[in-house]
Amino acid sequence: MDISSQMLLFVKVVERGSISAAARAEGQTPSAVSKQVGLLEDQVRQRLLNRTQKGVIPTPEGHEFYAKCKALAEKFADAEAHIQSLDGSPRGKLKIASSVAFGKSQLVPVLPKFLKAYPDVSVELDLTDRGIDIEAESFDAAICFAEQRKMPDIVVRKLMQSHRILCAAPAYLQHAGQPKSFADLAQHNCLRIAGSHERNEWIWHSDADSAIFEAKGNFEGNSTDVVFHATLAGLGIARLPSYLVAAKLQSAELIRVLPDYSQQNAEIAVLFADKRNLAPRIRVFVDFLVEEFRSGPELCRAEA
Q1: Rounded-to-integer distance, Cα 6 and Cα 66, Å
Q2: Judging by beta carbons within 10 Å of its beta carbon (0-12, 13-18, 19+), is residue 237 exposed, middle or buried?
């Protein structure tokens, strides 16, 4: 492996946070990756990484060297994307990030259709509810709420308008009763999203007035997907995206609470970096998603 390849591998190790994770991503053994990083450190005559029980952390010199290597990796990725775009055929690996709930309930079920249409494309999917820096983490695209957009140089394509609605399992409502008004929610076990004050503020708007209710209860989960499954289990009332609960409402596994309540400010979108030579695999993936989810559940459908 030449030094440029070692530099690219070093970037992977830093971004993945461990030798083992980088080895899995590159299809190599941890010992082979560790050896190459060691050879790179010998070449530059500096210790670049501190090894810990949890993984690796760049040294101060490693941080500076990573910035230079990252620039090289980006140039390589741009060159690769340009070459791939010459014949217009989508091919190569798509590195995609998606929120956990949307990825499990909506994205994964449509991937077989996409991969059948583009057999030369493969997908690496990272399900996470944390904030994603698309370019810094080398993602081709990320699917999340459009409100999570942080950087100006990111293109946003809307997939659907997801209403946030209140629902609960029949078993919970049988013993706790149906709330008759927004104020009645204070007497109920309301399920929370951990670490997010904003997402636990349920807002009621009507022609006459508005109100804010802070969800309080004996359970909180670190993702919408966890809260969804807790709701199905009968733990309480939750505010959940309509795309996630549409099928469960139809099957009566969940019951809509306060049917007049709906927050409609949650646009789900696919985000990708604004690059002049967008790789065909990214372009066809984005177009596929937009087309696929325009015909999604009625409550979620995006405007044409």
Answers
A1: 12
A2: buried
* Cα 275 from Cα 87, distance rounded (Å): 18
Tell me the whole-structure pTM to 2 decimals: 0.63
Q: Show the tokens assigned to 65.
A: 């060297």
Interval 169-225: pLDDT, tens: 999 999 999 999 888 999 999 999 887 777 788 877 665 667 788 889 999 988 889
CB-CB neighbours of 289 under 10 Å: 23
DSSP reduced 3-state for 248? helix
279 and 140 Cβ atoms separated by less than 8 Å:
yes
The CA distances from residue 9 to 35, 39, 53, 145, 269, in Å, are: 11, 12, 21, 32, 31
For residue 230, how many C-alpha atoms fall within 13 Å in the half-sphere facing its CB? 22
Q: H or E segment at 127? A: strand 121-127
